[in-house]
Amino acid sequence: MTVWFITGASRGFGLEITREALSRGDSVVASARNPRAVLDAIPDAADRLLAVAMDVGDPAQITAAVEAAIARFGHVDVLVNNAGRGLVGSVEETSDEEIRAIFDVNVFGLLAITRAVLPHMRSRGTGLVVNLSSVGGFVAWPGWGAYAATKFAVEALSEAMTHELAPLGIRSVAIEPGPFRTNFLDGSSLGFTHHVIEDYASTAGAARTWATDSNYGQQGDPVKAAKIIVDLADREDLPERIQLGANAFEDVAAKLARTARDQETWRTVSLSADFDG
């Protein structure tokens, strides 16, 4: 039996991963700002589900949630860092307050809960950390710069952990979903910058329009994604990152091709920066 600790478990990917893990007979610590929503969504899980109140920005709640997990199940096998928010607006339109707020959740919140769980995994010499990034953690688009910056940070942290934790028997992987049919584009998860500059109408403005028009019409199936993520607990051959959905796979492939072309074009300039001889 695998013990999962899932953040942001009251909806979206978090709720679907919780359902999938429970359906396989595993136990889940489902953390959310409103744990009642988890219990209402999954009323028949009995003792295998522990719903805990946890805001990833509250250190005391993080400590209490991890202590409750250990007290109930004795250990945590898999940490799923799923809690996160989105923000749409050009870089110039984004205020310090707005970008700090999204970094607090997507990056510093992830760091806080990871630091709280890793000592328990290290003591047992086993574990898996699944970091929900985004295709936006590898490819940045107009209007999504601040959000992508948080996910680029998640990618860097996850990649470093992959190599730091491997000698300790712990695995780490970044998951890069494309657009999935969750409530991520709802106002409860996605915000728009307060400041709007008309010069960005065709870029950041188009991103705002896409977010509004695409809500609940995204191509990705969150139930299928949850099955893939839960399957990872039994895989030893994990890469640094995994794309989910055709959109994510194709966008990453296109960026890799662009980067390869740029490297070849600028090869001489790049190599000329070293000392001679």
From TrEMBL:
Keywords of this entry: Oxidoreductase
Gene Ontology molecular function: oxidoreductase activity
InterPro entries: NAD(P)-bd_dom_sf, SDR_fam, SDR_oxidoreductase
Source domain of life: Bacteria
Family per record: Belongs to the short-chain dehydrogenases/reductases (SDR) family.
Name of the featured protein: SDR family NAD(P)-dependent oxidoreductase
Organism: Mycolicibacterium hodleri
